[in-house]
Amino acid sequence: MRLVKVVLVLLVLFIGFLLVRQNHDVLTQTAQFKLNLYIISFQSAPHSLWVLLTFALFLGIFGTGLYTLLGLLKQRQANRQLRHDLEVLKSEIQTIKPKTESTPPISQAADLSQSI
Question: TM spans, by residue (predicted)?
Fold first, then answer.
């Protein structure tokens, strides 16, 4: 399985390299963002397209990481709550167990009531 992961990572890196190599002219062009709010307008400095694409990639990785971390934290909280509930139930069983051992089982109690 580890070999498959390594091969897939190398394949993705190779395809990424080919993409950059074949589109070098397009990726070095500059782009500018404009925002017109009819009251005030904003304009960014010119940036290369490869910088914008890299920023978008890392922003997506960061967002996905935060979303995954949120799910992990919720799962840990649920596990913590379930462990607490399990400990409470175990303690309840331990307190009930000695009481049930002192009373006769149901079948013996039924035999006793019939003999009386």
Answer: 52-73
State the alpha helices, DSSP H only, in 1-116: 2-22, 24-27, 49-102, 106-115
- Residue given tokens 């890196």 in the structure block: 13
CA distances from 102 to 91, 97, 99 (A): 18, 9, 5
pLDDT digits (tens, 9 = 90+) for 48-97: 998 999 999 999 999 999 999 999 999 999 999 999 999 999 998 888 87
Q: Considering the domain boundaries, does residue 81 fall inside one?
A: yes
Give a yes or no: residue 36 inside a domain: yes
0.85 exceeded by pTM: no
By residue range, what is the domain housing residue 64?
Answer: 27-101
